[in-house]
Amino acid sequence: MFDTMRNDNPARDRLSHHPAQMPATGTPVAERPAIFPRLPLDETYRLNETQVLKGSTSHPMEIVSDGKADHLLYVFVLSGVIECGNTRSRLASLIPGGCTGAIINDPATSLKLTKGCRWLAFQIPLSLLRNQFGLWSGQFCFHEPRFAAVADFRRHAVSSLYRTINLLLFRKGEGETPPLVMSYEQLLIAQLYASAPHNLCHGDRSTRQPCPRQLRRAEEFIRNNLYAPVTVDHIAGAAGCSTRTLQRIFRHFRDATPIQTLSHYRIAEAHDLIKMGKARTVTDVASSLQFSNPARFAATYREIYGQKPSIDLRAHLRAAAERATPV
């Protein structure tokens, strides 16, 4: 029913000093158990691109993000309190026992956990979450998600996600196969989309018409070819329809042309590269994503994200340098 979105592309990894490594499906977490170093973990379970985590503290702890800003942690606090702060804005929010909250590993994010804090969490890459939520809602998602806190998750619809996480940890390792693990992951993402009060996308997907298969094929082709020269004829060929039909479908379901949609995906990919530390210069990013005019790329980026890509790039490079400098 649901399709996980992928964008495995060697061109993206060439922009990075540390190319991403694909995890082994359905195996215990090895190389990166959580987005916050030193986060105390009692159990971990890697699905495909997501992870289920369980942790507790024996004493108060303060933890800083790894600064990559590429994952979201949706947390169920069972006891104690998790305080999530931002060192730039100096704002903080509390997630007490019985409540849920969403945490993004922004470079300025820090966590404070009280003694005896116990929690469960679902960790998901932002790019995967944005693609899936965009597919199901029928709208492309540029921005990071904003999830409202749930005061009593056991009395809220999001309890279904909590129960599934518990079940997966209990049954971990029982008859795992890649298709089964993929189904678990899709179920968790679907429950997060259906039950958690988020505003990543607007509109009620139940009032929308189902996306035609030509649109799904076209967008899958777009996502898999962000770094390649692509024309509307290429997209129509992958969708299995004429260019005129493709234009009509995109106007009706996306309120944009196929090329505009391609540009939107590429801008979002550029934003992710910058925030994940996989970009050296703005020109390199623009060129790799097939933007022939760097000035136009920068203007579109600023229109969507509120500031020039060069400013975002300098901020993340500076944060990376500060983390690498020994105290």
In short:
With 327 residues, the chain is an alpha+beta fold.
Secondary structure: helix percent: 40-55%
Q: What is the number of E strands? A: 9
Q: Report on the biggest sheet.
A: 5 strands, antiparallel
> Uncertain runs with pLDDT below 50, 5 residues or more?
1-32, 202-208
| CA distance, first residue to last residue | 50 Å
Radius of gyration: 20 Å
Class from secondary-structure proportions: alpha+beta
Taken in chain order, the helices and strands follow as HEEEEEEEEEHHHHHHHHHH
Care to describe what's here?
- 40% of the residues lie in helices and 16% in strands.
- β5 and β6 form a beta hairpin.
- α3 runs antiparallel to α4, α5 crosses α6 and α5 packs across α8.
- The longest helix has 18 residues.
- 35% of the residues are buried.
What would the keywords be for this entry?
327 residues; alpha+beta; 4-stranded antiparallel β-sheet; 11 helices; 16% strand
Write the layout of secondary structure elements.
Layout: H1 10-14, E1 43-46, E2 51-56, E3 61-64, E4 71-79, E5 81-86, E6 92-96, E7 100-104, E8 109-113, E9 118-125, H2 126-137, H3 159-170, H4 178-195, H5 213-224, H6 232-239, H7 243-254, H8 258-275, H9 282-288, H10 294-305, H11 309-324
Antiparallel strand pairs: 1-2, 2-9, 3-8, 4-7, 4-9, 5-6, 5-8
